[in-house]
Design goal:
This protein has 420 residues and is of the alpha+beta class. It has helices at 21-28, 44-63, 77-83, 85-88, 111-121, 167-187, 271-276, 299-309, 337-352, 366-376, 386-391, 412-419; strands spanning 32-36, 39-42, 67-68, 74-76, 94-97, 103-106, 130-139, 154-164, 193-197, 207-213, 219-223, 230-232, 255-269, 279-281, 287-289, 291-298, 311-312, 315-316, 327-331, 357-359, 380-384, 393-398, 404-408. Residues 238-244 have low confidence and may be disordered.
Length: 420
């Protein structure tokens, strides 16, 4: 792709009213633009990154045998009233009436609709187990949207649901999800911890959260360095005085760190199946409630956490797995014939090898190009300038600043692909 044909609106100054690093850099790098509080527009560069994350999620979910479906965002109040969550969600749920006066909502999650499918379609133990997932827009009327992608009113979520006959079967489904989540976050180059957490409005027994440590995180995590205990502070057994918090397992002093939640897995048990009548016939012909689990990942939060943890004073440093492009070619002077010809040659050869590459073909100063290159964070920069050409080389620069290579211009592409 050519920069001159791509919409990448970069900004030198920090946007007003933004305090969180990922919010600032995602706007400055032209990844997103806020429409209004809690609702974002994802621009071409940002959308490419989100699609890379979605692809990783989809691959890992399919690896555990999950089947993808797509559920409606609109749902009637009647389903939510069966479980009591129509009132429990309160003002966090977008509620309205249709033209006939029927109460409707924009679904913040889909346990009720999944249970509706199950009670109509699951009849026997032979129909189980099942794992269903979707990647879809969710809506929550957040009272205090903040941080751009971190707490939004409209957001993209991967939510999946397991349906099992008994606890043993459920534990396998739960374990598969736990492993899939670890693979997803590792592939996105995130360092994370798994902590015990409350199930909240989801119900069921205790859940687990996947957390990334960050000063901007709204969750407080307690950690015992002695025995390894980790939990969301909301459920940790501790004294009211922060400095005296003690581990409920070994009694040692706990450390408290801020973190961002990127995934949450829940043991729902029989909560929804009993409330909505989702039963199956067991091997003896007796009716039993389906054992359920629910599992969520915030897609945009993955992008935000990567920016939070993998950036420097100059901009973002994308890991290759989710970068919008792997290579950025930077011809320092497009008016120079030799520079322009070699840049085009390298660009076309890399494209021919099926790699994603962006060429900065703008007639801008080298300083502007370098600043924009560091800001948008593409992993490898291929710099082509007159001084290098006089030496017969091009420069390959790794965005994280750890390595630079001078490469013979005649063997540029083969060596670049071998190094990267």
């Amino acid at each position: 792709m050519r920069w001159t044909k791509t919409y990448i609106p970069t900004f030198k100054e920090n946007p007003k009213g933004c305090e969180v690093k990922s919010h600032i850099l995602s706007i400055r790098a032209g990844l997103m633009s806020p429409l209004f509080s809690g609702v974002n527009i994802y621009l071409p560069l940002g959308w490419k990154i989100l699609l890379k994350i979605v692809s990783i999620i989809r691959e890992e979910m399919e690896r555990i045998g999950a089947q993808e479906l797509l559920l409606p965002s609109l749902s009637p109040s009647s389903l939510w009233e069966e479980t009591g969550r129509w009132k429990e969600y309160g003002k966090d749920m977008f509620k309205f009436k249709d033209r006939k006066g029927g109460d409707m909502c924009l679904a913040p999650t889909h346990e009720e609709i999944i249970t509706e499918i199950a009670r109509n379609g699951i009849k026997s133990y032979r129909d189980l187990p099942q794992i269903w997932f979707q990647i879809q827009t969710k809506f929550r009327d957040e009272p205090r949207p903040r941080g751009g992608m971190l707490r939004a009113r409209e957001f993209i979520m991967k939510d999946s649901y397991s349906l099992d006959t008994d606890e043993k079967s459920f534990e396998k489904s739960y374990s598969l999800h736990r492993t899939a989540y670890q693979n997803i976050f590792k592939r996105c180059s995130l360092d994370f911890v798994i902590v015990t957490a409350s199930s909240g409005l989801m119900g069921g027994s205790l859940s687990e959260e996947f957390m990334v440590f960050s000063k901007t995180g709204e969750d407080a995590i307690v950690i015992c360095e002695n025995c390894g205990y980790k939990a969301n502070r909301d459920i940790a057994v501790s004294n009211t005085n922060d400095s005296a918090d003690r581990c409920p397992k070994c009694g040692e002093k706990l450390k408290i760190k801020n973190a961002i939640e990127i995934g949450h897995i829940f043991r729902l048990g029989e909560k929804y199946s009993r409330a909505m009548g989702a039963f199956f016939l067991n091997t003896n012909g007796d009716r039993e409630p389906i054992i359920m689990g629910s599992y969520g990942i915030g897609v945009e939060r993955i992008m935000a956490c990567v920016i939070e943890t993998k950036s420097d004073n100059n901009g973002i440093i994308w890991p290759p797995s989710i970068a919008p492009y792997k290579f950025l070619i930077i011809p320092l002077n497009v008016r120079n014939t030799e520079t322009r010809k070699l840049s085009e040659k390298i660009y076309k050869e890399i494209l021919a090898q099926k790699y994603e590459v962006l060429i900065d073909d703008r007639d801008e100063t080298p300083g502007t190009k370098f600043k924009d290159a560091d800001l948008i964070g593409i992993p490898f920069q291929i710099v082509i300038g007159e001084k290098g050409l006089d030496k017969g080389v091009v420069e390959l620069v790794k965005r994280d600043g750890k390595k630079k290579w001078e490469i013979d211009k005649e063997r540029a592409v083969s060596e670049i692909l071998q190094i990267s």
